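Sample entry (245 residues):
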Amino acid sequence: MERLGIDYIDLLQLHWPDRYTGGRFGQPDFLPSACEEELAKAQFVDFEAQLAACQELAKAGKVRYFGVSNETPYGVCAMAQLAKSYPDLYPKIVSIQNSYSLVVRKDFEAGLCEACYHHNVGLLAYSPLAGGSLSGKYRQGPVEGARLSMFPGYMERYLGSQNEAAVNAYCSLAEANGMSPSELALSWCYHSERVASTIIGATRLDQLEENLKAYDTKLGDDVHEEIDDIYRQYTDPTKAKPKKA
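Predicted structure, serialized as tokens:
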């Protein structure tokens, strides 16, 4: 804080659950047996200890609000219940920063959205362009210096044939409606009732301008219907493993 030249932090988010959750970046979803193995190998910091540390920061006037990131419905509900039951001991979480885009929807929409709604936790959607894939720039192959080229292992979930097919469908929909693929993907995320705020990123000025332009783009009901049709055809395309050459 001294280096930043600030007296307090508005929002501090716990970046990852400290426990095993499964489903991280293309990994298999939660398995009870895997959870037992992880519990046997490591000692995890429980919710009470994490929130107690947050409360100390709040009482010291260093942090105003707290959130989580890459969390699950279980984690959100557990933390929310602790804060509700013991408000003097634990602060309420107000935000969750999770991946959310046209090709990464189900993880949030199928359960997590309901939990966040009832506990008044806002979604800060990150990677709305799915690692840049929804911009359409990888349709012709790798792009030098881009994320999917620089971090192929980490970004592998966006390289599978199912995600490629979904991206092509969304790009074609955007082009048919006179907008760029990025405009379609970002406008959909910006104006979703499930999203409190969208986190964008850019390495060039023209990318930033396109990101901002998309905020003024409103998608019609017919476009939303076509988006839902594509989603039904390609649900969770990033979960499909890329075929090895």
